[in-house]
């Protein structure tokens, strides 16, 4: 073990217990991210100057309904995504494990698909612009990503590659060698940095006035940051015969392409309208 390795702060995955019910950090992270995102969406809707002609797509009170739709989409999509994309064999051999969400096992890309379906259904039900709904949610998603990746760190899951950098850590169950704390890299890039970029776009560049632009920036930004972080991960083997391309990269490349193309096209469509 490297002399410079930082001791892993072994944190009990259980935040607190109420009688026989154990409340875990993993669940609290998701709840905290969703609640902060909900409050942020209400704040964006209440700030008229951010929107085209100072007209938000719907009143802030409807954010309560949107929260329920998106929460269901994230949980159902995230769980199904993890099962289908990463560990289908494990869950098919023991289907009851599918229900044990509190033990971890949520895939971002699955949650993304689930939330997109939920946002489209909400927009259709309320008769509002679906792209603006997606912009709102995209601006708030980094809250959930930050707390979710922090929970991954507490659970010592998503292990990084071995490394001799001064901040490397020896993770429980991952052998004696120090490793990149890749969960913290993701919390910083996908959570904090991505939030600041989107905040600059919404408040500094008026991106919410162009429906779809903020959502496109989120897709491109998240996809790019996820690809960068994948280089530091150990858990996932290469795909398509590659020793470099991981499943996380494979699922993120389309996000970068779609997001980048949309960021280029949407302002031009608005200018022509």
Structure description:
This protein has one domain. The mean pLDDT is 86. The chain has helices spanning 25-46, 63-85, 88-93, 108-126, 130-154, 182-204, 213-230, 247-272; strands spanning 14-18, 21-24. By secondary structure, the protein is mostly helical.
Quick structural overview:
The chain has helices at residues 25-46, 63-85, 88-93, 108-126, 130-154, 182-204, 213-230, 247-272; strands at residues 14-18, 21-24. It has 273 residues and is mostly helical.
Helix content: 55-70%
| Count of all domains | 1
Largest sheet: 2 strands, antiparallel
| Strand arrangement across the biggest beta sheet | 1-2
How many H/I helical runs? Answer: 8
Low-confidence stretches: none
How much of the polypeptide forms β-strand, as a percent range? under 5%
Element pattern in H and E: EEHHHHHHHH
Q: Using the CA coordinates, give the radius of gyration.
A: 20 Å
Characteristic terms for this protein:
2 strands, 3% strand, mainly alpha, 273 residues
């Amino acid at each position: 073990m490297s002399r410079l390795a930082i001791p892993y702060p072994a944190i009990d995955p259980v935040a607190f217990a109420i009688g026989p019910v154990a409340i875990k950090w993993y669940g609290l992270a998701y709840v905290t991210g969703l609640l902060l995102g909900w409050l942020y969406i209400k704040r964006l809707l209440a700030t008229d100057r951010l929107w085209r002609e100072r007209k938000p797509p719907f009143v802030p009170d409807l954010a309560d309904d949107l929260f329920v739709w998106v929460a269901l989409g994230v949980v159902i999509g995230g769980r199904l995504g993890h099962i289908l994309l990463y560990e289908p064999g494990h869950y098919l051999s023991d289907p009851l494990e599918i229900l044990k969400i509190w033990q971890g096992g949520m895939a971002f890309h699955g949650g993304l698909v689930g939330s997109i379906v939920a946002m489209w259904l909400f927009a259709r039900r309320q008769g509002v612009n679906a792209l603006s709904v997606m912009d709102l949610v995209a601006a708030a998603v980094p809250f959930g990503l930050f707390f979710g990746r922090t929970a991954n760190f507490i659970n010592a899951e998503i292990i990084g590659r071995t490394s001799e950098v001064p901040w490397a850590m020896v993770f429980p169950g991952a052998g004696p060698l120090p490793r990149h704390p890749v969960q913290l890299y993701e919390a910083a890039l996908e959570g904090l940095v991505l939030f600041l970029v989107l905040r600059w776009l919404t408040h500094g560049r008026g991106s919410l006035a162009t429906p779809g632009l903020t959502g496109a920036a989120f897709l491109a930004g998240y996809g790019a940051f996820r690809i960068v972080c994948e280089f530091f991960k150990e858990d996932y083997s290469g795909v398509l015969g590659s020793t470099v391309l991981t499943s996380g990269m494979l699922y993120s490349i389309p996000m970068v392409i779609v997001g980048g193309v949309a960021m280029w096209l949407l302002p031009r469509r608005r200018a022509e309208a």
